[in-house]
Amino acid sequence: MSEQNKNMQNDLSQEQLVRENQELQNEVKYVESKLQILRKEYDKREDELAEVQKKLDQMQQDYLAVIHSSSWRVTAPLRAILGPVSRLLHRSRVMGLVRKVFSSLKHNGIAGTFKKIGGKLSYMKTAKKFQSRNVLTAQERAAQRAATFPKEVTFSILVPLYNTPKKYLIEMIESVLGQTYGGWELCLADGSTDDFAFVGELCKKYAEKDSRIKYQKLEKNMGIVGNSNECIKMATGNYIALFDHDDVLHEAALYEYMKVICERDADFIFSDEMTFSTDISKPIVMHFKADYAVDNLRANNYICHFTAFSRELLDQAGWFTYECEGSQDFDLVLRLTEKAKHIVHVPKILYFWRSHPGSVASSIDVKPYCITSGIKAVNNHLKRLGIEGEAVEAPKLTSIYKINYKLLEQPLISIIIPNRDHLQDLRRCITSVMKISTYKNIEILIVENGSSDPELQEYYAFLRGYDNVRILEWKEEFNYSKINNFAVESAKGKYLLFLNNDIEVITPNWIEEMLMYAQRDDVGAVGAKLYYPDRKIQHAGIILGMRGTAGHAHYHVQTKDGNLGFMGRLYYAQDFMAVTAACMLVSKEDFESVGGFDPEFKVAFNDVDFCLKLYERGKLNVFTPFAELYHYESVSRGSDKKGDNNLRFKEEEQRFKDRWKALIEKGDPYYNPNFSLQVATFMLNEHYYD
């Protein structure tokens, strides 16, 4: 080997050592930053535990004072009698409550726990108020009964009967008889056993009084699928409605459905619903739903009750099938919505779902086979649409499904990160992307914008040694939209991943989880689940209209204590009007088709504005909770509430309101109007029915 070659080899070896040393130093600094965060969290929890211990000591002193008092000795015989009874009646409920309280104290502290308890009590109070207002006045009832419509519609209400308790049967039938719209027929197919003969006797008595009630005793019980299909055979109406034998309808249900059939040509309709136990005036859960959203539906049958659809649509989609028995309604809803032309959601509680032992309303665990058949229903749906993917049971929640769409290719993805100083944030971000991510076909474009930290320049020099990292220079004033648009011009990737410099990767396959949605032709932007370092939610989708503009869904919700969000919405992929560009994936083609980010939004609302432009072009914007990252949300720009920043923010806020006034007034289709737009998301709007 020549001396020149030896020198070159030595130089390369030396260069490699320098690089490896730098990488080790970066790893050390990355770990140190993580330890610093953990220490702060630990110190905070220690302070909270000390406060809890202080209160426990006081409670111990109070307890000792009570048991040594004369009144305690006098009441001993009474306690001996009542004690076992009390424990028998309340042990499981109280212990469950105690466990919840201690779990909340551990994760939320004292103040957070009291806030949660207050929130629960407030919800119960507001829910009762909602239900009290959800009752027609005599004037409303009379007006609805007298109303005329331009279309003639008869609803065939299908009710498969099987050993229905007498009380439930009577309440179910009476709720149909009480409908303010009279164009209906009640189709009752009875598969009850001989010891429930009163079911048939009662139904026949009702049928004698009202010819709209049709009753058929089946020769044998064919299960809910077979019995439901027998109901369909009885039906002569031009619309079909599904109704369970132990539930109750709101008296205006058919009237409200008739309105949207006439006004919006609806061929598939669903409403909000409420779960109750014995008293409808005391709600357990009020399920206020999004309008039709295909990704929400694939993840769970959120549509559920009360569904009605045209007979023509049913005949096109097909009847109930045994293949998905247990989730036969879900299977049918998927088939119907695939073919429906006008799906309409009525955002009113028109269905009351009774929770009792043995019902799915009480717990899905009562019928575990429903989960398997639900997965089958979704997989069949994907096959019918020619979509390569597979539904599996999602973590955390039963009856919720995660769709693993097959990646059709492994395209180059350009990760764009604007940066000014903030060396520690940037190093943590880049290191986590490179070390944790399993998707490797990436390029990283860092857009440098006026940094003054000399150590940062050293880090840039180190990063330039990577083939897939480039440092771009933006020498003008900060403008988030212009900076990212500028970077896109240099991006070589088929997809663009916009990323803040204060992001840290948690989920190794986060890119794959986002790409599986972004590759779909019907999807525009895809957002991830972002946490603050204490695991509170920073981003889980954006709601249009919050406080007049837009706001984060489930913002600041603490997830450490197992909070699943409203109806589990923190744990399944779903459609939103917008997602944050702090971590957003979109195809370069779609980005350019809407002109990228609007430079008029220098700092605020640029991502929401961008997503709404995609929405206007018929694209869905999707949030996936299966791509998880930390968002440290640094204060590099300063507060929007002071000085020039505040003036700029107000200008951008007004510009956004003016541009999207029509959409804001129309309302976010993925956020129910029963929820407030002024306080925390998914909180009931107490004045909606005023």
TrEMBL record:
Name recorded for this polypeptide: Glycosyltransferase
Alphabetized InterPro entries for the sequence: Glyco_trans_2-like, Nucleotide-diphossugar_trans
Keywords: Coiled coil
PANTHER family noted in UniProt: RHAMNOSYLTRANSFERASE WBBL (PTHR43179:SF7)
Gene3D superfamilies registered for this protein in UniProt: Spore Coat Polysaccharide Biosynthesis Protein SpsA, Chain A (3.90.550.10)
Keyword Coiled coil: yes
Pfam family, one: Glycos_transf_2
Domain of life: Bacteria
GO MF entry, a single one: glycosyltransferase activity
Stretches assigned to coiled coil: 5-62
Domain Glycosyltransferase 2-like stretches: 156-315, 414-545
SUPFAM superfamilies: Nucleotide-diphospho-sugar transferases (SSF53448)
CDD domains (alphabetical): GT2_RfbC_Mx_like, GT_2_like_c
